[in-house]
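Contributing: when you submit paired examples, paste them exactly as shown. First protein:
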Amino acid sequence: MESIAIVIVTYRPTQEILKNFIETKDLAQKYGISKFFCVDNSLEKTEISNLFAELSDIEYIFNNNNGGLSRALNIGCNMAISNDAEYAVLMDQDTIFPESFFSGIREYLNNLENGVGILAPNMYRLIRSNSGDLVLDERPLYGTETSEVEMVVTSGSVIDLRLYSKVGGFDEKLFIGHIDRDYSCKVINAKRTILRLGNVFVYQENGYANESNKISIGNRTFYASNYSSERYYYAIRNELYLRRLWGNKYTKEQRSPILKNIILLLLLEDHKLDKLKAMIRGAYDSRRL
């Protein structure tokens, strides 16, 4: 049976995040997953950070946001490799994993053909209501057929750690944002496939989206991400960097739709001017990478 680790990166974790991780760990252990690595990217340790560190069966690393998300993921994956893991489940702190996720990936991994570099779930979005509660959007984010795709998001992805080492891991120039797009390109460029499981789900909070910041066009609903100016800076900087780095290999499916994101920002978000200025700085700085 394949050796699987879970790698979670935390940032200013809350009691809710700690509870979710403990529940995830307990479910994973039922399916033979016994290696857990928590990389804490908080700027300073908190009481919750200390509780993470005290959990049994995990290795905790305080990274002090040194190198951003990309370096934190590399730290976690390299620790998993050092502990003889063959695969790593990458976990955002706000992702919820039902038991069916672990039973599903176990079934697929046991019958997996050579050539798959990433095994990824389908998703349901979690949206904040006006009262602050999480509300489930009951429409799957993707189609329910299992299919080969060209890009998947980081959280919930099961990556082949042998391939991870071969392609050089995650690009630490990116810091935060578009790490998943770049890694997807690396997998495809290595002649490996990305398989999205249509019937295996995780629940993912959609940025800082909430019910009051959305627009519906036909049968599609678009939510404002409500990210900070800093996140918008890295989004545009890294997108333009990847377009230059990968050229024609950076496909339409892998690219971030810059114009759509700007339109949603202008229609739905606050602090528009600050975020647009951050995007302009990001576009300028992308040439320095």
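Second protein:
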Amino acid sequence: MKSDAQRRVWPRRPAYLLLLLCLLSTTACERFAPTHSVHFLTGEWQYRNGFDPSFLLSAYDSPEWKTTRYPIPFHDAEAMPAYANYRGHVTVRYRIPAHIVAELSELNAAAFYSSWISDVATVYLNDVPFASVGSEQPYVSGYNRFILSGVPLRALRSDADNYLSIHFYAGGTFPLLFLYEDIQLGDADAIYTNFFIYEIVAMCLLCAYFITGQYHFVLYIRRRQEVYNLYFALFSLLLCVYWFFRTNMRDFAFGDLVLLRVRIEYIALYFLAPPLMFFISQLFYKSNSRFGYFALAISLLATVFTAFGSFDVMRFTLFAYDLWMLFAIIVLIGYVAYGAYHRIMDALPLFIGIIILMSAATHDVLAHLGAFENTHIARYFFLGFVGAIALILANRWVRTQEKVEELNVTLEKKVSDRTGDLRNTLHEIQALKEQQDGDYFLTSLLIRPLTGDYTHNNALPKEY
């Protein structure tokens, strides 16, 4: 049976305001549009095993080179089985079109942005190296790190083809990766500005989510009976930690501690689902759901494998967890949809927010599983979910204020009525006391002759 509070109708506040907030938040997920002098190096790339400086300027139609299109799925055992567990050197290169070369020649400064690549990598413009990540001797991994560097324009050639080449080396436990987002080459001011604006926006969003978590944690401290605030605070803070590892700032924080960085990132990811499930169950039903405990057990198991396993074990655990999350997302949406269908208070705005966040999370999970290549976007759509929670809290606050106003309006009348009742009661008590006093006086007069002693009356004669 549902309580009266649970069976209240949905809030009357217009849901389209939340949808507008969500639409505004999605605009942040797009990369800031670069200027015309920034080019994405998509299209045909060439690759070959090994590395030698002579490879860099060899003929484009040389039979040793194999042609493919970016992104190059070195990690995909089905698409490129020879590179799934490859250890050694690989060289990839891109022939820069003539119109891009002409634009670069007119620039005062040019820059190159690689997005995230792996493992050890050195970038060349023709045969001139200008940037690298990681180290072959001594081996220092560059797993999932980015290259942002100026380009030596003096290396451009006017009488022959120009190539941008990357020499990869996979010598440890980390795989070759060359697939994230788009490689950029062009005007230095535009690329650096684009990069730092993107990072600033990402960090501002993370700060907003961190403040949201702290706010709900303070609410829990002040009102311990509202346990859902604690779970939402934990979810927000863990989400903030995880998405920090999806920004380029994490490389400045961890440097060459690649394995430690990856372990913390994965563990933060594994513990996102349980507090979210507990938050929803506490918000609707004032109890922790069994499915939330099941998700917590899976998170603990994945954490053990991640904390103590090898990198291959960590990758397999992450893959299995991604499959589990697809199922968990469906259950979570169904759980909230059930509450919305039965008109549980505040379920509808939360359902809208969950749909937005879970859609973005599903996109990220499928992108990580290799269903398609795209940047992760859930960090931006989380703003819509926070908006849904804010709408719920605002509705609860408005309902509380309405009750307080109603109480203030009727309080004086209630006090006056209560005072009148007490005055009438006092009058009745006083009348009853007077009646009791009169009855006592009359009773004493009636029983006095019966209680007198007349054996020694002097009015009677005495005879002896």
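If you have annotations for the second protein, write them as plain sentences, like these:
Residues 1-35 have pLDDT under 50 and may be disordered.
DSSP finds eleven helices and ten strands in the chain.
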